[in-house]
Specification:
23% strand; NADP; seven-stranded mixed sheet; 2 domains; binds glyceraldehyde-3-phosphate
């Protein structure tokens, strides 16, 4: 039997073992074997890590911007060099397909480079007093963006590299220090990206990686007085909990969704089918932006349902190394939840078109027709490969049901009539509405936000930089 790796946390520019002596086993979601152990650090060790960022952050912010930029660009290069090593861990730790795992690392390197350029080109601006009525050209404001201090970055399991670096890179280029707390399932991937980070030669203590159960140290660090800003991506319940007690700290929350695909009777049905399939089922639906319900006009519902059924039946199912669309879910609890939703939807009388098969954490792709608004599946977020079709009589009814959700991340509208699609989009309560396309976060420089229980504040490269900095004016009176 091969030995199980123990991964260290990262503090003071070094990898370290926790004095707590507590380790957390990380199990592969599909092989069900322990692939490694991460440190469960103590509150005292979290205190030390946070305290050490304070003077490091000041020196880091003082460093010439081009030196910070150079280090970040080198990190991007190093991630590409280490891509296969990191991708292998992503695959084994969160069950992402090999191709998607490699793509995630490449996407992340590109993210860092764009972030550096974005900051270099936009961090300073100026205003003249004469532009305001009665103002004077002798008053000139130079407006700089100042780092907030120590950012707490809490990332989720489903994009353990991309969604982590989407917080770390904007924080670092703008002169913040970071305390990085990854999801426990995702923590080895986090260690791997910090191994790449460590090779580049960043100053000690500008980034600390702390690992441990959210229930043990999550709340503790979130309300810690040494944390100046929180950037969180994860479930809505945890997000709401964080916002309830981390008072007076700026916070950006990227949470869940129940993104609807609204299909009008004049839609290009084949196009809608292609977009819905990839929107709903890729990575087994474990994306906050997955399409999680279809609201279709009854005039084309039979055609759409029949075509979706054919496609769902043809979906590849299997293990991540073989690059199928459908892979096992992240853990047993998640698979049990999705299974329960499927059972209830059958009991409630919806028409099961495909699916309702399970092997351990692997839930086969499932499609329901005739789902109604009194069923759980119409409202709950499965984070799994199950899609309800809800038939509607009009655009108004589709909009009403879309907006009755507690979530408002994204939505898709399919219609050949652009004016009609834009009119529907205008009435949808969501951060973004895609016309004739699937719901998705990228490209990564677009602002990304949710309303209602889908989040607070805005992500996306320039918006994340804004959220992690504040303006400071130097006003010159000539
Ligand atoms: O799970 C939430 C992610 O932000 C979704 O990102 P994606 O649309 O690129 O898959």
């Amino acid at each position: 039997m091969s030995e199980i790796n123990t991964y260290k946390y990262y503090v003071g520019g070094k990898f370290a073992e926790s004095n707590s002596g507590n380790l957390i086993d990380i199990e592969c979601p599909y092989e069900k074997t322990v692939i490694g152990r991460v440190q469960a650090i103590s509150k005292e060790e979290a205190d030390v890590a946070i305290a050490a960022t304070k003077s490091a952050q000041k020196e880091w912010a003082e460093l010439d911007l081009f030196k910070r930029a150079d280090l970040l660009n080198k990190w991007a290069d190093q991630l590409e060099i280490d891509a296969h090593d990191i991708a292998e861990i992503i695959m084994k730790e969160v069950g992402k397909t090999w191709n998607d795992a490699v793509k995630e690392v490449t996407r992340t390197a590109e993210f860092i480079r764009y972030t550096v350029q974005e900051y270099i080109h936009t961090n300073d601006s100026a205003m003249s007093g004469e532009n305001y009525p009665g103002g004077s050209k002798n008053k000139i404001a130079i407006i700089k963006r100042i780092p907030l201090g120590t950012v707490l970055a809490i990332s989720p399991f489903n994009y353990p590299v991309n969604l982590s670096v989407a917080k770390l890179a904007p924080a670092l280029i703008s002169g913040n220090a970071v305390v990085f707390k990854p999801a426990t399932q995702g923590a080895i991937s986090a260690v791997k990206i910090i191994e790449s980070f460590d090779k580049v030669g960043f100053p000690a203590n500008v980034l600390q990686l702390i690992t441990g159960k959210g229930s043990d140290i999550g709340d503790y660090v979130s309300e810690h007085e040494g944390i100046d800003m929180i950037s969180f991506t994860g479930g809505a319940t945890t997000g709401r909990h964080l916002s309830s007690f981390s008072t007076m700290k700026p916070m950006v929350l990227e949470l869940g969704g129940k993104d609807p695909a609204i299909v009008c009777e004049d839609a290009d049905i084949d196009q809608a089918v292609t977009e819905i399939m990839s929107g709903a089922y890729s990575y087994s639906g474990q994306r906050c932006t997955a399409i999680k319900r279809v609201l279709v006009n009854e005039a084309v519902a039979d055609e759409l349902a029949a075509k979706l059924k054919v496609e769902v039946e043809a979906l590849s199912v299997g293990m991540p190394i073989d690059n199928p669309v459908i892979v096992p879910l992240i853990n047993k609890g998640s698979a049990d939840y999705v299974d329960g939703l499927i059972t209830d939807t059958i009991k409630d009388g919806a028409t099961l078109l495909v699916g309702n098969k399970r092997e351990d954490n692997l839930i086969y792709p499932t499609l329901f027709d005739h789902v109604t608004t009194d069923m759980r599946l119409a409202w709950e977020e499965p984070f799994g490969p199950v899609l309800p079709i809800i038939r509607v009589k009009s655009d108004e009814e589709a909009i009403k049901i879309a907006n009755q959700s507690e979530y408002g991340l994204q939505a898709s509208v399919f219609s050949r009539n652009f004016s009609r699609a834009v009119a529907i989009a205008g009435k949808i309560e969501a951060g973004s509405v895609q016309i004739n396309g699937r719901t998705e976060r990228g490209p990564d420089h677009f602002p990304f936000l949710g309303v209602k229980n889908s989040g607070m504040g805005v992500h996306g490269i320039s918006k994340t930089i804004d959220a992690m900095t504040r303006e400071k004016l130097l006003i010159i009176n000539l």
